[in-house]
Amino acid sequence: MTTGDEAPWKGPLSGVRVIDFTRVLAGPAASLALADLGAEVFKIEPPGTGDETRTFPPIRDGESHYYLAVNRGKKSIVVDLKSEEGLGLVRDLAARCDVLVENYRPGVMDRLGLGWEEMRAINPRLIYCSISGYGQTGPLRDRPSFDIVLQAMSGALSMNGERDGLPTKLGIPLGDLVGGINGPIGILSALYERERTGRGRHIDISLLDGLMGMLGYIAQLAFFNGTDPERVGSQHPNLVPYGIFPARDGSIVVACLTPSFWGRVCQSIGRGELCEDPRYDTLEKRRDAREEVNALVSAFTCRHGVDELVAIFTRHEVPHAPILGVTDALSHPQAKARNMVVEAQHASLGTIPIVNRSIRFTDTEQPIPEAPPVLGQHTEAILSEVLDLSPERIAYLKAQGVVA
Questions:
Q1: 230 to 154, 164, 215: CA distances (angstroms)
Q2: 35, 90, 104, 288: which has the highest count of C-beta atoms within 10 A?
Q3: Is 288 one of the catalytic residues?
Q4: What are phi and psi of 403, to 5 degrees?
Q5: Within 10 A of 221 (CB to CB), how many other CB atoms are there?
Q6: Residue 175 in contact with residue 148, Cβ under 8 Å?
Q7: Mind listing the UniProt keywords for this protein, alphabetically (predicted)?
């Protein structure tokens, strides 16, 4: 906690400056993580519409829900990168920054004169993170990619969906969001390395690589068996009971992950004798008798309401959860206790709810994240306070359409 006139602690990356050439989702998710950790993020946006997601409906009072979701805590500066003066401004800004993040297709930043080689010549300490669908190398490097394409190419889509139906994409755009995980990991490790070497580094983040990396034990299962894992819907390929079970007024998730939980499931459904039943007393036997085991659990759950089942499974310490909608999840007592939804002051919308940062630090309170910026909200402040430009020079750049 801070006292008196002491400035609030913004996070462990306080003092780190990031020049952000990202747009849409994968890149902005990465720079969002850095902003949440306290970095000062200068989001470079083109004149006119800015980041494409500013136009994605639904839109309220000129502001898109999509843009608001992944740009909290950043500062927007509008610069025309098609002009030499605009390129000069962002080069000067990069010289004063610790990190550069971009998610254009490979080669675009080079053509702009803002590629890795050019930037490290200007700032040898710069950490330069490139995020793209397929990475900077390989036969697919120049292809456009979107989340569902990456899910398909990674193998993730093939195993998502019901056994007898078509594959179904993940509801969360994990193919894109993996860039918001791996990008910051690479950046933070490079910042740590720079403390020893004094040199920056280029980071090549492929969203396809990232999603393949998240296959985890599913990939190892394919290596073991030499075949593609089958789709099992919300169930687990090897663990039973594990999945969604019917309730009298809805459905509930039950997850029996280890042998010890099987006994708890049996006790909770009033079938304690099943614990020692030789038909179901190992993980392999329960997997092979999947339909029978699921039927035993379903016969119990369908006679009770969701709230009753939550109470029963809680009492027996069975891993379980009601299936909440997004609004219920965000208003759940656990989310409230963790302060996961907070209010921020937006420049045009006024007070708005936003999702809070998901990484917390004990013993020190961080301020509520700043609302996402309106287009060009911080242009003048960045030009004057960071680049030390005079009011006359800023007025000239505005008149020429270089900044807005």
A1: 15, 10, 14
A2: 35
A3: no
A4: -130, 165
A5: 16
A6: yes
A7: Transferase
pLDDT of residue 2: 45
| Confidence at residue 4, expressed as pLDDT on a 0 to 100 scale | 52
Q: Which of the following is catalytic: 80, 98, 176, 209?
A: 176
Which residues are within 8 A (CB) of 264 and not within 5 positions of it... i.e. 6 or more apart? 316, 317, 318
Nearest alpha carbon to residue 344 among 356, 332, 333, 336: 356
Q: Record the pTM.
A: 0.92
Query: Phi-psi bin for 48: left (phi > 0), alpha (psi -120 to 50), beta?
Result: left
CA atoms of 227 and 229, how far apart (whole Å): 6
Q: Which domains occur in the chain, in start order?
A: 17-214+362-399 (3.40.50.10540), 242-324 (3.30.1540.10)
Could you report the per-residue pLDDT of 236-268, keeping only the tens digit for each? Answer: 888 999 999 999 999 999 999 888 899 999 999
Q: How many residues does the chain have?
A: 404
pLDDT < 70 positions in the chain: 1-5
Residue reference for tokens 């369908």: 302
State the pLDDT at residue 5.
61
DSSP β-ladder status, 127-132 and 63-64: unpaired
Which residue is listed with tokens 């961080």? 366
